[in-house]
Amino acid sequence: MGEDKRYLIPAGLHRVEQEIQRSRFITTVAHTPTAEEAKAFVARVREEFPDANHNCWAYVVGPPGSTSTVGMSDDGEPHGTAGRPMLTALLHGGVGEVAAVVTRYFGGTLLGKGGLVRAYTGCVQQALESLPTRERVRKARLAVELEYANIEGVRRLLAAYEAEVLSEEYAVTVGYRLELPVSQVDAFRKALLDETNGQVLVELEEPRD
Q: How far from each other are the two terminal CA atoms of the chain, in whole angstroms?
């Protein structure tokens, strides 16, 4: 079944702002489980600040520090001074499934390459320090088929095992599609068998990563 991987992800959209040598830097961080969602988030921030000089960005898909799916852009800043330092800060930030956009309004003072690297790194670090997070729990999906007589008892079990009903179907028997933490699957299956005296079919669908 694979281990039940739990790690921190952003709890929601988070924004911090700071001024560095008269330039205004606005850092927006979001939970983005996929590359598509990360790119859509970047596009939304660009639309929000269309008059900014730069909307530089970076994202990490997967667990904290995972480099299998990452992306970044300097968005017109000198090569390597924005996207790469932002990505490095995200990879060391202890949070997974995360994207950051740093919006810059130029204030008239050139920061130089080293200054830009420090600014973009610092912006992401500052945002991550105050970022509200929650635990990401790996989920599995189950297909459950049972007799009508057992509906009430089985429904009582759902909350105890953090199981969410995705769909239900009432025919000759009752069919549920459920999603619950991978760590609860074995205990939930046993509880179902006990509750229904074995009159239940439980099928594990592909676990979600």
A: 11
Distance between CA atoms of 26 and 103, rounded to whole angstroms?
5
Do 25 and 110 contact (CB within 8 A), yes or no? Answer: no
Secondary structure class of 82 (helix, strand, coil):
coil
Local confidence pLDDT in tens for the 209 residues of the chain: 334 567 899 999 999 999 999 999 999 999 999 999 999 999 999 999 999 999 999 999 988 999 989 999 999 999 999 999 999 999 999 999 999 999 999 998 899 999 999 999 999 999 999 999 998 877 889 999 999 999 999 999 998 998 999 999 999 999 999 998 888 899 999 999 999 999 999 988 865 55
Which tokens in the block code for residue 88? Answer: 């490095």
pTM of the model: 0.71
DSSP summary character for residue 45: H
186 token code pair? 């074995």
Tokens read off for 79: 């090569």
Domains plus CATH for the chain? 6-135 (3.30.230.30), 138-204 (3.30.70.240)
55 beta partners: 103
Q: Which two tokens stand for residue 121?
A: 């790194």
Q: What are the respective helix, strand and coil percentages of the chain, to the nearest 5?
A: 35, 35, 30
> Where are the extended beta strands (E) located within the chain?
6-10, 14-20, 23-31, 54-61, 69-73, 98-105, 133-137, 139-146, 164-170, 174-181, 200-204
